[in-house]
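Could you help me review a protein record that somebody else here produced? Here is the record exactly as it was handed to me:
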Amino acid sequence: MKSKNLKKKTFSYINYRKYTIISIFIIFISSIFIYSLQKNNFNAGVKQNKNMILEQENIEEEIVEADKKLQNPPKEVKALYITAWSTTLPDRMNGFVDLIKREKLNAVIIDVKDYSGYIAYDTENEDVLKYEAKKVIIPDVDDLIQKFHNSGIYVIARVTVFQDPILAAARPDLAIKNNVTGRLWKDNSGLAWIDPGSIEARNYIVEIAKDASARGFDEINFDYIRFPSDGRLSQMSFPFYDSEKQTKREVMKEVFEHFRLNLPNVVISVDLFGLATVNRDDLGIGQIIEDAFENFDYICPMVYPSHYANGFIGYQNPAQYPYEIVKYSIKHATERLDKFRTAQEDNYEEQKKPLAKIRPWLQAFDIGAIYGPKMVRAQIDASNESGGVGWILWNASNKYSAKVVELVD
C-alpha cells in the first residue's frame, strides 16, 4: 500500500515538475516574444519620431528659406545692375537705395558669378571649394540681401554660365579647346569657355543657383547661356558637343530645359542677344527665343540700341534711336510669344506649361550716343508700349545718377 502511494506521489511529483518546467519555458518564450514586440514597437516609434523630427526640420528649413525672400515681390521689376564690388562701398550702396526710392524703382541685380568665374560670396559648395572658385567680395551676402529687403527691394542674382575661366582651368576636360594649340580656347577678351554640351557643367551651375536662392535671392538670372560669339571660332574643339549629331540650338534647348527641371521652385530668367527677338536663326550661338518661352519665368533680351549694326531697320546709327530700336525688338518678341501661346493651346492635350514674360535689359551707358534720362526713358516707354513687363538698366560702372531721373511716373 505504501509502495503504491509512493509511486503515485512520485508520479505526481514528476508530472508537477514537468508541467512546471513547461510552464516556465512557455512564460520565458512569451516574455522574449513580448519583449521583442515592445522593442520593435519602441524602435518603430523612435524611427517614426526621428522621421517626424526630420520632416519638421525640413518644413522649418523651407519656411526659413521662404522667409528670406521678399514677401511682396513686384509685379513688374524696375532694376539697376550692381557689381559685387559696388556692394562693398557703403556710400554707394546708400546712394543706390536712395535713388531707387526716389525714382520709384524696386529691384537690383547683383553679380554672384561674373565673367571671372568666381563666386562672390562665402559658400560651402563642395565643387566651388574644390575648384577654388570662391573669391569673397561680398563679406556678408545674407545681411546685404536683408538690407535691400528691408527697403522693399527685390534682389536678383546674376550668374554667368558657360563663360568661365576658373572652371575651365580646374576642369579642362569640360572646356572648349583650341584645335591648333591643344590648350584652352579663349575669346577676344582672353576668357575661356565651358562646352555647353557638358551635363556636369550644367549641374555645377544648378547647384550655385540653388545656394544663391537658399540665401534669399528672389530670382536667379542666367547670362552667357550660349555658345561663344567672338574669337577664332573656327579653332574651337568641343569635348561633348558634336555638330554631326546635334545643332547648337538643340544643345541650348537642352540646357534651358535642364535648368527649369532642376530649379522647379526658383524664379529664373535668361539673358538673350537683342537680335534673338527678331532673327529666326540661332545667331550661331544656339539662342532661339521660342526655346526659352516654356523654361524661364522671364526672358531678358539685351536690346541695347548701340549693339545693333549700322543700318538696322534703316538707321545708320541705331544708338541715336532708342525708342524705335527697342519698340521694334520688343514688339517682335511679344508677337512671337503670342503665337507660341496660341500654338501651345492648340497642340497641348495635357496641362500647359506657364510661359515667360519679356523683361528687357536697357541701355544706360554712353556708346554710340550720349544717354541721358530722356534716352533711357524712351526705351522704357517703347518696351511698355510693346508688351514688355518691367526692365533692367545696365551700366557696367554703376554710374546712374545722370541717367536715372524721373523715369517712372
Summary: Residues 2-68 form the longest helix (67 residues).
